[in-house]
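It would be a great kindness if you could assist me with a short task in structural biology. The matter concerns a single protein, recorded as an amino acid sequence and a row of C-alpha cells. Could you please explain, in whatever detail you think fit, how the C-alpha cells follow from the sequence? Thank you for your consideration; the sequence and its C-alpha cells are set out here:
___
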Amino acid sequence: MVVEKIYGEVCVICNEQGYLTDLNQWTKDVGSEIAKEEGIEMTDRHWDVIEYLQDQCRKQVPLSIRKIGKSGVVDIKEFYQLFPKGPLKISSRIAGIPKPVSCI
C-alpha cells in the first residue's frame, strides 16, 4: 500500500511505514517536515548524517548502526543522541531512503 503525503508544498509517495518510495522526491524541506513529525529539530550534525545515508544508499551500500558508527561521520553514541527514537530507522525516513534491512 502506498500513501500520498504532503510536506510543505511537495506531494510525495510513501509506503505504509512512512518511507519515501522514490529518493528523487526528497528535498531538504521534505526531510525537515519528516523530522518535525518525529519530534526532531534538525541541526548541521543531523544533516551530515542524512547526507551520508543518502550517499550510501545511492551506492547501494547496506546500512547498519555499526557501519555508521565506524564511518567517521558520527559515532554510535552521538547517533543515538541525534535520533533517540531509533537512530537508523528515523534517520533513514528523514533521508528519504528505504528502511534498512537491519532495522526491525
Observations:
- The longest strand covers residues 2-7.
- Residues 14 and 21 are 5 Å apart (CA to CA).
